[in-house]
Amino acid sequence: MKIRLLAFASAGDVLGASEMELELPADSRVADLRARLEGDHPALSPLWPRLAIAVDGRIAGPDEELREGSEVALLPPVSGGSGDPAGSSARQRTGLADGPLDVPGALAAVAAPGRGAVILFLGTVRGSHRGRRVERLTYSAYRPMAEEALERIAADLEREHQDLRVAIVHRLGEVEVGEASVAIAVAAPHRAAAYQANRTALERLKSEVPIWKREHYEGGEAAWREEEPLAGGGLAG
User: Fold this and answer.
1) Is the torsion defined by CA of 21, 23, 27, 28 positive or negative?
2) Which pTM does this prediction carry?
3) Rounded mean pLDDT of 41-56?
């Protein structure tokens, strides 16, 4: 049977491709795919214990069965870390943006006359990291899974508080120093709930959404920032 393999961030670097088609025996499982890949690409072995594996957009364990046409994604730890206070997208509540973020659109998505507390977090690109000058970042994502995770986070938070609304938008592609990479807007009748939901949304975004960050440094070097194993269970260690 044939499967579609997607490899993100450092996993893609090791395989030398972000997407490929593989032929596997019928009734193969994730563990069988691991053995095949480690045989074909020995450099993948040190990375594998840190990977989460998604099958058709869902985190899967080593015993998960694969089917003809399955889409299997190798997901390294996500970028995690924290943003500096600075962006969002058009009036959709959650999503990924391929260009500059629309902050007024994020605010409009949550605003209402009865929601007197409005909290906006804007994360911008810092100009340095651990003493090195950063020139820009490149963000990439497993888009279907990332969009679903953003919507899930917003929906979960809205269920916890009456009349609270959440908008989360993250930028993809190249983002220059000082530009906004993420916007989280929360509106609620009272400020305590708005503050709490905004902070929780950011922490969950950093650990649950398959978005990766590549830092480009002065002098031409670049490195993936892979810090937090993707939450959701089913790690294929």
Assistant:
1) negative
2) 0.77
3) 88
